[in-house]
Every structure is written in C-alpha cells, then in structure tokens.
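Today's session is about reading a structure prediction critically. Students often jump straight to the picture, but the first step is always the sequence itself: look for stretches that repeat, for charged clusters, for runs of hydrophobic residues. Only then move on to the predicted structure, which in these notes is written as discrete structure tokens rather than atom positions. Here is the chain we will use throughout the hour.
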Amino acid sequence: MPESQEAKLKREQDRSVPADFDTIADTNAHSGEWYGLEVHDATFPDDATGVAVNGAGKNMSAYNGKVPNGHIFKARFTKITLTGGVATAYKG
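Below is the predicted structure for this chain, in token form.
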C-alpha cells in the first residue's frame, strides 16, 4: 500500500524535530554531540577552548550580548561551555 500524503508529511516533520536536548545552565564544560544551540542570555568564554564544532575550538565571545534570546546557532557542537545564561543544546 503506498504511503499517504499525510504520512509523508508527518515523516518529514519528525525528521526536522530534534530527538532530544540538554539544558546547559552552568559554567562547566559539556561534551557531547548537538546540532543546534538555542541561547537565552547565554555568554561564551573569550577563548577558543570553551566551544568546539566538529572538535575544532571556536571563540564565540563576539556574540555575547549581540544575539536575541531564542537565537539558534546551527552546527555540530562537540563541546559547550558558558560563562553565564542558559542554552538548550539540541541532539540529532
């Protein structure tokens, strides 16, 4: 039996929704694999060791105080450290 249009649409929607997430609300280093980072008053350390994308360090401090709450950075984050605020890290 062929798949209905409704079933196809639901399958596409399910693929676009994250499978899980972690809430980061401290200044500890978190390691894992996340595909999006939604920030809420989040600030980043002024170095390239606090955040990593695909294992490579990234200095994201230039965004401190410049992106609105709810902004989502899209990348394959492998390490996340905040200096303040809260972030939701979305798993694939």
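Discussion point for the tutorial: The helical segments are 5-16.
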